[in-house]
Structure formats: structure tokens, C-alpha cells
Amino acid sequence: xxxxxxxxxxxxxxxxxxxxxxxxxxxxxxxxxxxxxxxxxxxxxxxxxxxxxxxxxxxxxxxxxxxxxxxxxxxxxxxxxxxxxxxxxxxxxxxxxxxxxxxxxxxxxxxxxxxxxxxxxxxxxxxxxxxxxxxxxxxxxxxxxxxxxxxxxxxxxxxxxxxxxxxxxxxxxxxxxxxxxxxxxxxxxxxxxxxxxxxxxxxxxxxxxxxxxxxxxxxxxxxxxxxxxxxxxxxxxxxxxxxxxxxxxxxxxxxxxxxxxxxxxxxxxxxxxxxxxxxxxxxxxxxxxxxxxxxxxxxxxxxxxxxxxxxxxxxxxxxxxxxxxxxxxxxxxxxxxxxxxxxxxxxxxxxxxxxxxxxxxxxxxxxxxxxxxxxxxxxxxxxxxxx
Length: 387
Hints:
Layout: H1 11-18, H2 23-27, H3 37-46, E1 51-54, E2 61-64, E3 67-70, H4 79-89, H5 92-100, E4 103-110, E5 114-123, E6 126-134, H6 149-154, E7 159-164, H7 171-185, E8 189-194, E9 207-212, H8 220-227, E10 234-237, H9 243-254, E11 258-263, H10 268-277, H11 281-294, E12 295-305, E13 312-320, H12 323-330, H13 337-342, H14 352-361, H15 367-373, H16 377-386
Parallel strand pairs: 7-11, 7-12, 8-9, 8-10, 10-11
Antiparallel strand pairs: 1-2, 1-6, 2-3, 4-5, 5-6, 12-13
Helix pairs in contact: 8-9, 10-11, 11-12
């Protein structure tokens, strides 16, 4: 889910990428049975693609700057080809786990190229593979053009900080950049649980332990439970995906730890509702009270292409848990949160629309992109006029 997965492409490389579909006509297609997965992943890195999609009946497909580009210099893959490629990126233990589960997430590294987060699933009785390219270097907050409040939130001594957004919006990269910022400036014990590990964190001023879901621990909830006995200061949970994990994260934050995690929600207000709604009705008021006490901030982000066509950038809604926000959470009035965010820019908050306007004013994104991503297009037009 990296923000840096659409790295800057040179003009010549972009030209090659966008005309790739015609290469088979020139020199003939490469037989898929002769292709090793490392070759395909190196192609992904060379073309600065964010993802590669592999399935039976189709040639490999790259996602370049958000667009899908079929690589017809390769023959369409057969079911035995995707099975072979799957075996090349997995260990026997991982394949055994895939026999029991419908999907498998693994990390894979090509020496000298990049790390990849690989998802493996079944479709039409064959294997399908999606590999996302990850940066070998953790980008910093400034390079990602993230709000400066990210630095303040990750330096909090305790509480809950959430990064939300749809799949592929760069949540993991944002969290990695925040953790790296902390790692360079404070002495803390950091424990992460990820599925799989996307960015390898080295010890700087912090002592870091990274655990991989399925390899080192069976579930996020189990990792959180046991992490509390490992003298942590900071806990990073890959995803708050179920009631047990959310409950364990709230408990960890309530007992004096800084907890960072992600959710697949599109705004701060829906994030609060999502957390509360996973619990049964008789527990929800108690959960609201706990969440109001421990929540420090929510960053809700979406990726959009830059105006120069060189990559993508995150537009980030920022909600800080001010006294007014905490009162709204306790009182089940989350529908009023957007209004608080919009009028609290002086303390670092901003709505998604305000973030989009700021990117447009700085010349980073186009007007068409701003209008297409606006939560309220009419209100967006008034913001642009005011700007």
C-alpha cells in the first residue's frame, strides 16, 4: 500500500511502458513457461509500476501511475504457469497454510531490485497473484508531503493513532515513515505485527521487534495480547480487522501504550463509527467512552496522481482528538465531527476537501482530480473560489 510505489518515471521509460502492448508484434512474445517470477518482478521495478497482476488466460499486467498496462511481450499465462510462479514465491510452510485458507499474503524480495507484498488467491480453479512493489528505503514524512501533525502524533507517549483509507492508499507507507521518524528521535521499545512485513525497520534510537502474521504469530489479537508482556512502549498493528483485535488495541492504549494501526474507512467520522459498531449494542457506550479517552488522532488518506504525471500523492484528512471531538464521540454525535474538523485548521485539522484544495493551490494536483475526489463538489467549488 505504499505511497512511493509510483516512483518517478523518466520520459523515455514512460513511453516504453505505455507502448508495451505493441511489443509482441515486433519481436514475438516470450513463452510464459520460460519466465521466472524474479524476471517479472524486476520488470515491475524497472518500469516503476506499483503492482503486477498474474492470472491464467492473460499476459502479465502492470499498474503504472494508476493505469493498467498489459505486457503482451509475454504469452498469456496457463494455469500451470501461475501454479509454478506461486511455488517460486512461497515456502513449503506457506503453501501448506494456503491449502487451509482461501488467501495467502507473503513478503518476497528480489535481490538488488525491491521487496514485494504478494497476495495469492484462487479464481476459476487456478492461482491468481498480485505483487505490490515496496520501497527498500523508508521515505520520510517530508518526501511523502504528509501533514506535519504526523510527527506530533507519533511522538505521543500513549494513546491510539489510526491511519485509514481504501486498499492501496499508502497507509503502510505513512505508518512506516512515522515510525522511522520516532526511531530517529526517541528511545522506545517498538513491537510491530504485520501481515506481511512490508518495511524492514532497523534499530536506530529505538529497539524494534517485527512479527509477521502467519509466520511469527497466528493473529493480530494474539500478538497484541502477548506484546503487553514484552515491555513495549509503541505497538504497531497492521490492521484492526475484527472485534478481538480492536478490543486488544483499545486495552493496550488504555494501559499507557502508544498504538498505531489502520482501518479501511474513508473519513475520521466513519472510522469512529466502524470501531464502535463491531461491538454488540450493550457494549457500545462503554467502547465510546474508552475510545474518547484514548484516541489521539485519525489520518484518512487517498492517493491521486500528480499534475505533472510523475507519480501519486496523498490527500490526508486530519482529525485530532480535541476536547470537542472527544465529547462528540462520547455523545454519539459523530455526524458533527466534520464540522469541527473544518473549523479547526489552526490546531492542524483539515477535511479531505481542504487537503485537496491545499494540494491544488501548491500546483501538485490538477483541478479535475480535485473535483473528482471532493466529498462535496459544490462546497469544493466555494473553497476554490475562496482560495
